Amino acid sequence: MEIKTDIQIAQEVEMKNIRDIAAVAGVDEKYLELYGNYKAKIDYNLLKDNADKEDGKLILVTAITPTPAGEGKTTTSVGLADGMRKIGKNTIVALREPSLGPVFGVKGGAAGGGYAQVVPMEDINLHFTGDFHAIGAANNLLAAMLDNHIQQGNALGIDVKQITWKRAVDMNDRQLRHIVNGLGGKMQGVPREDGFDITVASEIMAVLCLASDITDLKARLARMIVAYTYDGKPVTAADLKAQGAMAALLKDALKPNIVQTLEGTPALIHGGPFANIAHGCNSITATKIAMKLADYTITEAGFAADLGAEKFLDIKCRMAGFNPSAVVIVATVRALKYHGGVAKADLNNENLEALEKGLPNLLQHVNNIKNVFGLPCVVAINAFPTDTKAELDLVEAKCNELGVNVALSEVWAKGGEGGKALAEEVVRLCEQPNDFHQSYELEGSIEDKLQAICTKIYHADGVVLTPQAKKQAAQLEELGFGNMPICMAKTQYSFSDDASLLGAPTGFTVTVRNLKVSAGAGFIVALTGDIMTMPGLPKKPAAENIDVDENGKITGLF
Question: How far is CA 115 from CA 121, 159, 200, 425, in A?
């Protein structure tokens, strides 16, 4: 039997007109801005016009620490939304937009998989409605205005050695991490060291995702710090008078996009910061609109619960005033065996000993959600044909010891039908009382907050700040940024800052080597390990397999 690829499955489905999907979601046509027949933007005025309407329940989908074996978080989110509708619940799924860099690099597409996908998957994975291009353009306009200000006499006294604003491109391109620009003589700019971030790492991405409306967007853009003067004072986008022009470039990008799942469930896809270097959640605007329209909103946060979920709960929920009702933690038996030391090639063989060794990774994430954040959760085992009954029973028994149920998710193979059991458990959990709270208070020093995240969430012995980071912490507190939440930039492959430490490591400390303020986003970024804000392509990029035929049909996109 031929196994169809994700793109083949997506291309074989007859999509409904986006007007019909909007009608299912309860979006009046006056709020729709059409991008062809299958995608549209929603005017954010819908929120103002529905301000009195009660919010539905919010469910977060997160996962265990990722492995090369794959976990299927987006697939589960989409399949769960379809499963919720199958059991008669008014549900919308709210996801992030994929970045072009990983699509052409290692990861491939990010629109779900199998029979649990959002469509049109080619558009979503490529240019979509141009949001990322707008963010890149706004980012680079600010960079151009900054360098132009220096070239035209530097009235603000900017120290070119203390410029913190980088240029951005939505592509994995290691060649651009460190560059020298402004070469070629006096009229070609001021020579200086510079570099590029991938667009999703731009603070403008974070700002767009956290802004409540266009006025808030402009205010956040204005606050962004781009450099420091010779006497250590921050220079902002407002000092360069750039916020208005940037907001003009972003006014449409601020509007959430509506598409559909393979089964016609409405999906809002908007924003896409990485969770290992940014806050990893879709936009507050998209989540709020979904909660006004649906009784249940399913959303996801990037990578594992120590990254995406922690930032969703400590940053996004705090800023937006969200109180989630339940959390789904996605795991696979294969990935847990990988955490137990099994090589990728041998994951299809039953191995209860390795599974037992890898299970602490899942259990630590469960414990964090339940006991640190006070939220009810369910473990969704993303089913693979190679899973054995003994393996599934072992996972269930260990989770039950923590008072958490396990639901087998078969959405990849069966779509919404395979998500009904998970949907029933999620609905049950949503009715439970919860004691949701953040993992740290905003008051207290930057180091106190770092210590709380590292000990409570990562289960480290503590945090170590390099001399440079200590100096930066003192400077940021002196400048009045001490009470902001922390956005950890850390490897996604381990609870620790060392990617090789699998499972649930103990006896380690986390080293913070750099602290910088994202004053527009409203958080402090703490860089750990060797985390980078511009990825590179692998030896064999996914781009080598992508093609388009004479009819415009794309192949090889996952």
Answer: 12, 54, 27, 21
Q: What b/e string do you get for 401-428 counting C-beta neighbours within 10 Å, with b at 16 or more? A: eeebbbbbbbbbebbbebbbbbbbbbbe
pLDDT at residue 107 greater than cutoff 80: no
Dump pLDDT digits (tens) for 368-413.
999 999 999 999 999 888 899 999 999 999 989 988 999 999 998 8
Q: Please report which confidence band the pLDDT of residue 109 belongs to, taking 50, 70 and 90 as the band edges.
A: low
Q: How far apart are CA 328 and CA 422, in angstroms?
A: 9
Residue 282 · residue 49 · CB < 8 Å: no
Alpha-carbon distance of 196 to 181, in angstroms, equals 12
- The span from the CA of 104 to the CA of 545, in Å, is 9
What confidence tens digit (pLDDT) does each residue in 19-31 have? 999 999 999 999 9
Which residues carry out catalysis? 73, 75, 96, 107, 275, 303, 384, 412
d(CA 277, CA 487) in angstroms, rounded, equals 8
Structural contact between residues 487 and 315, judged by C-beta atoms closer than 8 angstroms? yes
